[in-house]
Specification:
single chain, seven-stranded mixed sheet, eight-stranded mixed sheet, alpha/beta, 53 strands, disordered C terminus, 1866 residues
């Protein structure tokens, strides 16, 4: 039966309606209602329900193929909304619909019945059944029909499906939640788990799995299908059955082998059957491959069978990954046909089909299941026989092993630990109830939880003392009760007075009992109490004492004060009778209470833990108080010292070996151990014992200078407080003001002084206007005038309208302006709104005309995009993703492909709309333009970056002498002082200083200054692993007395990490220093993570709504992607919520550490931050999901910003803050300026890009001649304002700005001709690029994924080819004397010998062919040549990859600086940063060119750096940088692109932009080059590159012209149609008017003026209405005219006619007589039909027809108004000329000129007689001679000018001495 969408949707609606009705009525379903409910089949295959369907107007956004379902979808949404109690509930229901569309593929009942029948036949008749993904309950029904009493627990996450399921099976346990919510007590509970489980790489939250030691279980949480299998096996008992239908991916995927192995280790394989792809066709209209897997749990199985081994493996069948079991057992595949095809995702797959439909599939399944169960099902295991035998054997072994035990006083906890985990055997042997098993989880002591051995338990109890032996018989200890046991009520509860006494005793700093020097009365009372208790206990019998002891050891509710620091596993002390007390631990801690579990301890251990509890509670109370109130807790600190001193006096240090393991059993033990710090081999108190560490005490009492007074004031009050400054200084108020003149200004608006850097900053225009207004109304003096003058002088020059660039859709432009433009463009009223929360425009138009419906309309296959729809896209700079059908598949569904022509036409019209906006603005009045420019200036050009002058700073405590001795630093640069001052004033920012300009010292000094002045309490510096040791050394040298915490690798080992974190928390360090990697291991605040991830989750939802509102077709892939991201974000949120709730891991998070400023060295390492955008097809935007590393940094910075309530909170330091694209600026602002972005209404990347970026859309022809769309943010506009926004928080300095004493960079482009093998391979590359046939290159054919990245593959091959052919195939290709390795070795040798006396060193960089031991690589090849051919010692050549640790790396760097290592090879990532080996560097060699400008700068910075002595004194203060470029390769092209891009980035940073717009270029590492440019470069003729570029533009324009004329012809047809209709209507109006005038002239009226009905029927004398009406009714019944008009009478001279017309009614043909009045036209009334029930109405029919003529005339006139309005527009469209025709002609002329030039170039001139060709030819004497050439590249003029001024070209064979002077500049 074919899938009938309409019928399925109707069934679903009725089922949902019934479920809602039953829910309201609160009753069970009737049989008829159950039948309706059972027809529910989910919404798989009904994607249309996701389309908007709120009103009839939404239908225009629907595809034609779905329109027939629109009414039902409206009904569905209305039904759900009417039955939702709130909008939130409605949203939840709609979310469940979305999920259902993706996952609801319900199993046919024939299949579920087959499985149930076969299992029943084999006596697998479960009493307890688990259904983890129930759907509409097919499996429940199948098994319930076998046994109605079966105890079912079913999970269904979908709300609507769960509701229906509950109505269908009201007697079963239906849980509308995810399977992961099943509780742990249900492990091993069920007899069987049967289901059709969900599939997908959606994560699942299960803390037990996430924390598991088994890698497979941890991995299972990342994919829901894997999780269901392992969790299902957990839930069934030993011998139980798991039978799941799942996607083929579970068994086929190689990544799941570990999961399958885990399954086979816990269960037997009973059956694995591959089901046909058409199994779900009838229910869901889709084909998907699935498997039935049946397992029998057996946790005691030994080894795997051969079939089970096959089951775990993945093999290959016809090139497709397939489970090895099915390759070997083809009989296990249910099918009648099999073929190699593709899966729903377009990937190659084996597709199996069964012609028999669901019934046929079920029959085949029965047979296979029957054979499999007969062969493999172990019934004794299922029924329990095997288990019983195993239990008896275990019990017998226990009896044999049992021996009497002794009990000693010191056994303590060891006795408690006898309660080992109860085994399966113990559980099974216990009496059980049939209806529910005894759920008795293992009971363990705290020692067991920590995995202590018996010996470790003894040491922990006794402090390592030798055992004392006792001959006393040991009393038998009771079993420690289960958490599930009911708490015993017989234990005497302490009275309120006793609890109060205990509480007061705990809070007072009194030593624990016994007290040797206490008050005598207290001592006597205690002694008396103890003696009384001893007498009472002596009277008790042994049995009574044992019973009382058992009662006391029962778990019971904790009745003490549940303080905030108490959590799961915390030790507590509880008073019992009299002075006796117990210690134990807490479990089941909630906000309402906890359960106290007593520990059976000896006296000494009990007293030690009690003393420890006092120390812990005192510490926690102190830290919490000071952290929360920022007030010094003197009393609490005194109590902590007293309790700690007492503990140490009695038991030694907390960290003493005898105490550590005992204390570690407490949940807070790690924290408490950290309140001691190791110094000089002994433990001392941490800083918290002496002063607060959670906040800073302002201890400044005196300053030496007015500047320091000002800094102190800013720190404490956030502004200029002259009273406070005067109290700190020896100067008077007036002296302070005079001394700070020009540094502070009086702000009358604030009523006080402000610092210059704050007053003359920000929006100075607005500030000046408000002060001027204040002065006009208030008396003022000189101080106000000075302030106003300073502001006015600092105001930026206004930007005029003519200088501005505009984008349609910039969020700052009022929507009224857009509405005015749209109304002008379309010639009708258009209204536009904007939603800030969704960053989306809405467009409404009351009356649509031809401009909207025709001129600006693109007609697609499935829907039309009119002008309003295109305007919406234009406003957000997107293009509709149109598709078309190219036929039908075998199920009658459309085969959809992208409509390239439609997309191109839509893009052209959107461009016209966007460009038209700029032209429209230019035509507006000067007043309008000035207002718009003023608005822009006020918004963006009103900011001033303060001129930070840090020259006054003296940096107390800075040891310059030590810095000079260690690092050669004599003083702090002025640039460093200015930057430090900026950071101090702003509280952070960006230090954008070039490599080698001293950023390390800036970090160290700024951090110390912030600490000294109280601007930061606990700063942190993080740097690269390679640099962090040097940073710490620099800090120690600069501030020898500073207290620094530097994280070594050992500190971050798992066993030491927690202690290190606690050290940060509990100590008041001047600075904490660690690496990026170590920082990533710090846990972040769960609450903040929750907040940020929730915002991301909300954005995902908003994006889906935006896509729908734009009318985009939401594809299943798009929906699945968003749903997957939503589910995974939800799991992350759930994980974090669980961490917040439990908090049992006692690990300090970043927020608790108290870090309040982070210095991030090499901050560009964190640029990969997540963001959301609708521009999903734009290249070069990076990964939207970002990296966890960057996300951790965002969490940390947000934590600080949340604490301070301000932006910044961090300092980013890097010489390459923008490493590749200006889009990276947005992410910098997202980190550091969230509040400022929010103030500018920039709440997303798209809003930022709308203001500052222009998107380009290029259309190219691919190899297959299809149009390919490429989008990039290539152009950036308003660059000066963008630079201003960046510079406001940035200190940017180049090495020249700083005046760093470093050598100059001398770049040399070393051209190399291609070798013969390279020439041959270049031809192959060109053939591959044209054909896509990868076998040309000697590799396998491209996969489907690789096809999409073909040009990236081609680019990668070209890069490898240029470096060395052996990178492509080391066996096929050989060495060549003219390859890059040979040239590089020769150059290295020349420099080596030239600077041999000075031991000059060289760097060699390559990111390709890096060193790998045992494999051929370029590094080793060049080293071989240097050693063998040039005699350079092998020991002087090193590879950075050989350094496996920091020590080895440092040794190599030292050897470079000493000249023992002369040449070092490395990649950008390993050698490009953190290597200070510049002392002797004379040359840098680039074997390849990196992708990013920043990478090139980092490489060069290794040698072009301060401290390079050899270059300075022996090489003319120059370092040669040689770039090796093979001709006809991409080397030179990439190098030029990098230089151009770096130029733009540098200009933006410095604010020295020559233009307001820049072009970034169009090549990146993600997509490689485009086809035409690639072909041109490889051809070696750069004219071909220009020609290729021009031809690409010509092809795109010609395609655009074709679509323009195609649209024009459609308009031409419409114009012709409208013209004809207008003429016809005018003719009708004239004739009808004449008829009506004739009627009026003839008509007769009565006395009242009513027209008389003067009908004359032929053959009827009577004229009364009854007779006339009767005759007309008879004619209507009986007349037969054979389709002819027959006269029957007349009215006022107008003939009356009747005509018989055939008509179909209920499938039969019937006749219908219609009546007319004949004039110029035949007029009718009531469509010509006579009233058959009323003779008067029948007789009036003809008169009424004549009286309708004026209405008809009005209708024609109304139509003419539309035609007359639209015809001129259509005439303009038809008569319009394509606007780009001249551009196309000019481009074609350029192409023709280039072609002629190329032809001349290709025709070689005839050589003159006797002339020798010497270029590259071996001469007679054996010397090869080559002449220098000019290398031409197809770059733009600016690029060429830049290269000419910076690059020298050297051809091989030129003498090295002349290369600096005779190389030809380009």
């Amino acid at each position: 039966m074919a899938f009938n969408r309409k019928a399925k949707l109707r069934d679903n609606i009725e089922a949902i309606r019934t479920a809602f009705e039953l829910g309201k009525a609160g009753r069970a379903a009737t049989p008829q209602e159950r039948e309706r409910l059972a027809r529910y089949c989910g919404f798989g295959g009904l994607k249309c329900i996701l389309n908007p369907a709120a009103s009839l107007t939404d239908a225009v956004q629907w595809a034609k193929s779905d329109l027939d379902l629109f009414p039902q979808t409206m009904e569905l949404h209305r039904l759900i909304r009417e039955n939702s109690a709130s909008e939130n509930e409605y949203k939840r229901y709609i979310d469940s619909l979305k999920s259902s569309v993706l996952t609801a593929f319900y199993t046919p009942s024939a299949v579920t019945e087959a499985l149930a029948d076969v299992l029943h036949d084999y006596n697998v008749r479960p009493l307890r059944l688990l259904e983890p993904s129930a759907g509409h309950g097919a499996f429940i029904g199948a098994f319930a029909r076998k046994d109605a009493a079966v105890d079912v627990m079913a999970f269904e996450k979908d709300l609507l499906t769960g509701k229906i399921l509950s109505c269908l099976y009201p007697d079963k346990k239906i849980r509308t939640e995810g399977f992961e919510r099943i509780e742990k007590p249900f492990d091993g509970y069920f007899d069987a788990a049967i289901s059709n489980i969900p599939f997908g790489d959606m994560a699942v939250f299960d803390p037990a799995f996430s924390a598991s030691e088994a890698p497979a279980r941890r991995m299972a949480t990342k994919a829901i299908h894997n999780y269901f299998f392992l969790k299902g096996l957990d839930a069934v008992r030993d011998g139980g059955i798991v039978a799941f239908i799942t996607s083929q991916g579970v068994l086929n995927s190689p990544q799941n082998e570990a999961i399958r192995l885990e399954m086979m280790e816990k269960a037997r394989l009973v059956s694995a059957i591959r089901l046909p792809n058409n199994l779900f066709t009838d229910n869901a209209g889709t084909e998907v491959g699935s498997d039935l897997i049946v397992l029998q749990k057996d946790t005691r199985k030994e080894g795997l069978t051969e079939d089970e081994r096959l089951f775990t493996r993945t093999g290959t069948l016809r090139g497709v990954s397939t489970n090895s079991y099915f390759i070997e057992h083809e009989e296990q595949i249910v099918c009648t046909s099999a073929e190699l095809d593709t899966d729903p995702y377009g990937k190659p797959a084996m597709v199996y089909r069964h012609e028999g439909g669901a019934e046929g599939i079920a029959d085949s399944l029965r047979g296979l299941l029957d054979r499999n169960l007969h062969a493999r099902l172990v019934m004794r295991l299922y029924s329990g026989g095997i288990r019983d035998a195993r239990l008896k054997e275990e019990q017998a072994a226990k009896v044999r092993a049992a021996e009497p035990t002794l009990r000693t006083e010191d056994a303590g906890l060891a006795a408690a630990s006898e309660n080992t985990p109860r085994t399966e055997a113990a559980r099974a042997s216990a009496p059980t109830r049939e209806e529910k098993p005894e759920i008795e989880p293992p009971i363990m002591t705290l020692y067991d939880l920590f995995g202590f051995t018996a010996e470790e338990v003894r040491i922990a109890q006794t402090g390592g003392k030798p055992r004392r032996r006792s001959n006393r018989p040991k009393m038998v200890q009771p079993r420690q009760p289960s958490l599930f046991d009911a708490p015993t009520q017989t234990a005497a509860a302490p009275t309120q007075e006793e609890r109060t006494a205990h509480g007061s005793a705990e809070s007072a700093p009194r030593p624990a009992y016994p007290v040797e020097n206490g008050f005598k009365a207290d001592l006597n009372r205690r002694i008396t109490d103890i003696e009384r208790q001893m007498r009472e206990e002596a009277k008790l019998s042994a049995e009574e004492r044992q019973r009382r002891h058992e009662e006391e050891m029962q778990p019971r509710p904790f009745d003490g004060l549940l303080e905030p620091h108490l959590k799961e596993g915390s030790f507590v002390r509880v008073n019992t009778a009299g002075v006796r007390y117990q210690v134990g631990y807490l479990k089941d801690v909630t906000r309402y209470g906890a359960t106290f579990h007593p520990l059976d301890l000896g006296k000494e251990q009990r007293e030690k833990i009690a003393a420890y509890i006092s120390v812990r509670d005192a510490y926690e109370r102190l830290y919490t108080y000071e952290a929360e109130y920022h007030d010094e807790g003197s009393a609490q600190r005194k109590a902590l010292n007293a309790r700690y001193d007492e503990f140490v006096a009695r038991y030694g240090n907390l960290n003493a070996k005898a105490n550590v393991k005992l204390l570690m059993m407490d949940a807070s033990g790690r924290d408490i151990l950290a309140i001691e710090r190791a110094e000089d081999g002994r433990f001392v108190k941490a800083d918290i014992f002496d002063h607060p560490v959670a906040f800073s005490l302002n201890g400044i009492t005196h300053v030496d200078t007015p500047e320091e007074a000002l800094s102190a004031s800013l720190n404490r009050y956030g502004g200029v407080n002259l009273d406070y400054m005067e109290s700190l200084s020896d100067s008077s108020r007036e002296e302070l003001i005079d001394a700070l003149k020009g540094r502070i200004f009086y702000n009358p608006l604030a009523g006080g002084y402000e610092i210059k850097d704050r007053f003359i900053a920000g929006n100075v225009v607005d500030k000046a206007e408000r002060i001027e207004a204040w002065m006009a109304e208030n008396p003022h003096g000189e101080r106000e005038k000075e302030a106003l003058a300073a502001l006015q002088e600092a105001t930026p020059r206004p930007i005029s309208f003519d200088e501005l660039d505009f984008n349609l859709g910039e969020r700052w432009i009022p929507t009224g302006i857009y509405a005015a433009y749209a109304s002008y463009l379309f010639g009708t009223d258009v209204r536009i709104g904007f939603s800030e929360s969704m960053d989306e425009y809405s467009v409404k138009c009351g009356v649509k005309n031809a401009k909207i419906l025709d001129q600006y309309c693109v007609k697609g296959y499935y829907r039309n995009y009119d002008g309003i729809a295109l305007l919406k896209h234009a406003l957000v700079n997107t293009v509709p993703d149109m598709s078309k059908s190219i036929g039908k598949d075998e199920h009658g569904n459309d085969i959809k492909v992208r409509d390239s022509e439609g997309i191109q036409l839509a893009n052209a019209k959107i461009d016209e709309i966007r460009n038209g906006f700029v032209e429209w603005l230019a035509e507006q009045s000067p007043e309008f333009q000035k207002r718009l420019a003023d608005m822009y200036n006020r918004k963006f050009n009103c900011y001033v970056r303060p001129q930070y002058d840090g020259s006054h700073q003296t940096f107390p405590d800075l040891d310059l002498k030590a810095l000079e001795r260690r690092f050669g630093i004599k003083d702090v640069y002025q640039s460093q002082k200015d930057c430090i001052w900026m950071l101090k004033q702003n509280g952070g920012g960006i230090c954008d200083h070039e490599v080698g300009t001293g950023k390390t010292l800036i970090m160290c000094v700024a951090a110390h200054e912030m600490k000294r002045l109280g601007l930061a309490h606990k700063p942190m510096i993080i740097g690269l692993k390679a640099n962090v040791a040097e940073i710490a050394e620099c800090y120690r040298t600069a501030y020898p007395n500073a207290k620094i915490l530097y994280a070594s690798e050992k500190d971050f080992s798992p066993e030491n990490r927690v202690r290190f974190f606690n050290n940060i928390k509990n100590n008041d360090y001047d600075c904490v220093i660690m690496s990026h990697d170590q920082f990533g291991k710090i846990p972040q605040s769960p609450e903040l993570q929750q907040q940020i991830l929730q915002a991301e989750l909300d954005t995902v939802e908003e994006n889906l709504e935006v896509l729908r509102s734009q009318g985009k077709e939401v594809s299943k892939a798009m929906l699945r992607g968003l749903e997957k991201r939503k589910i995974n974000l939800s799991v992350k949120l759930e994980t974090i919520a669980h961490a917040i709730k439990s908090r049992t891991d006692d690990v300090v998070d970043f927020k608790q550490m108290g870090i309040d400023h982070i210095f991030v060295d090499e901050s560009h390492q964190f640029k990969n931050l997540m963001f959301n955008t609708r521009h999903d097809r734009v290249a070069g935007l990076g990964n939207q999901d970002g990296s966890q590393k960057a996300l951790n940094m965002l969490y940390a910075i947000r934590t600080i910003q949340e604490r301070t309530g301000k932006d910044l909170g961090a300092t980013f330091l890097s010489g390459t803050t923008i490493s590749n694209s200006l889009t990276e600026l947005y992410l910098l602002f997202k980190y550091l300026r969230p509040k400022e972005l929010e103030r500018q209404n920039i709440n997303s990347f798209d809003a930022w890009a709308a203001i500052f970026a222009k998107k380009t859309t290029d259309f190219e022809f691919s190899v297959t001649n299809n149009i390919v769309q490429k989008e990039r943010f290539r152009y950036f506009i308003k660059v000066p304002e963008l630079a201003q926004f960046y510079n406001e928080i940035t200190d940017y300095r180049t090495a020249e700005d700083v005046g760093v004493d470093r050598p100059q960079k001398n770049e040399i482009l070393h051209n190399i001709p291609p070798t013969p093998q390279q020439e041959e391979f270049i031809e192959k590359l060109m053939q591959f690029a044209q054909s896509g046939d990868a076998t040309i290159l000697g590799r396998d054919k491209l996969s489907e994924t690789e096809e999409k990245a073909k040009m990236l593959i081609a680019t990668d091959y070209a890069r490898k080819m240029a470096l060395d052919m052996r990178l492509i195939d080391p066996d096929l290709y050989e060495d060549h004397s003219d390859n890059k390795a040979s040239h590089c070795a020769k150059m290295i040798a020349e420099y080596y010998h030239k600077y041999d006396a000075q031991k000059g060193t060289q760097f060699v960089f390559s990111d390709l062919g890096t060193f790998q031991p045992g494999q051929w690589n370029v590094y080793s090849e060049i080293k071989r040549k240097l050693v063998e051919d040039y005699g350079i010692p092998s020991s002087e050549i090193r590879f950075i990859q050989e350094c496996k640790n920091e020590k080895a790396r440092k040794a190599v760097i030292d050897a470079m600086n000493e000249g023992r290592v002369r040449v070092i090879f490395g990649s950008t990532s390993m050698l490009g940063t953190g290597v200070n080996a510049q002392k002797r560097a004379v040359a840098v060699h680039h074997l390849d060119t990196p992708w990013r400008p920043s990478d090139l700068a980092q490489r060069d910075g290794r040698a072009v750096r301060k401290g390079n002595e050899i270059a300075k004194f022996f090489a003319g203060n120059n370092v040669d940088v040689i770039i090796y470029a093979v001709e006809k390769s991409l080397d030179s092209y990439k190098f030029n692109l990098l230089h151009c891009k770096q130029t733009f980035i540098s200009q933006l940073k410095s604010g020295a932009m020559g233009a307001r717009t820049i072009d970034e270029g169009a090549m990146d590492e993600k997509s490689g080059m485009n086809f035409s440019e690639y072909m041109a470069i490889l051809s070696g003729n750069t004219d071909l590159l220009d020609k290729a570029r021009l031809e690409k533009k010509v092809a795109a324009l010609e395609s655009e012209r074709k679509t323009f004329h195609k649209a024009k012809s459609a308009s031409s047809w419409k114009l012709e149609d409208y013209t004809k209709k207008l003429a016809h209507n005018n003719d009708c109006i004239v004739k009808m008017t004449a008829d009506y005038e004739a009627f009026l002239a003839r008509v007769q009226t009565d006395k009242e003026g009513n027209k008389l009905n003067a009908v004359r029927l032929d053959g009827l004398e009577a004229t009364d209405h009854k007779s006339v009406g009767t005759r007309l009714q008879e004619i209507a019944k009986n007349a037969t005219t054979g389709g002819e008009y027959v006269r029957i009478g007349e009215l006022y001279g107008f003939p009356l006619l009747v005509k018989t017309e055939p008509q179909l009614k209920d499938g039969k043909e019937v006749k219908l007589n219609r009546f007319f009045v004949e004039g110029a036209f035949k007029y009718t009334y009531n469509n010509g039909q006579i009233a058959m029930a009323d003779t008067k109405a029948a007789s009036m029919n003809f008169l009424n027809a004549l009286e309708r003529i004026p209405k008809l005339v009005e209708q024609y006139k109304a139509q003419n108004v539309t035609y007359e309005r639209d015809i001129p527009i259509l005439q303009e469209t038809v008569g319009g000329v394509w606007k780009k025709e001249d551009e196309l002609k000019a481009l074609k002329a350029e192409v023709a000129a280039l072609e002629r030039k190329i032809q001349l170039t290709l025709a070689p001139p005839a050589p003159e007689a006797g002339q020798e060709q010497t270029d590259g030819v071996q001469q007679e004497g054996g010397q090869r001679e080559q002449q220098p050439e000019v290398v031409r590249r197809g770059t733009d003029t600016d690029s060429e000018d830049f290269i000419r001024s910076h690059v020298l070209v050297v051809r091989p064979g030129m003498q090295r001495e002349t290369s600096h002077h005779q190389g030809m500049k380009i």
